[in-house]
Amino acid sequence: MEGLGSLPTTFTLAEARQAGIHPRDVYRWRDTGQVLELSRGVFRHADAPVPSYPDFLAVARRAPGATICLISAASVWDLTDELPAVVSIAVPRGTRPPQIAFPPVEVSRFEPGTFDLGLTHLEAAPGEPVRMYSATRTVVDLMRLRHRIGEPLAFGALRRYLARRDADRSELIELARSLNVLGPLRNALDVLEAS
Question: What's the pTM?
Answer without folding.
Answer: 0.89
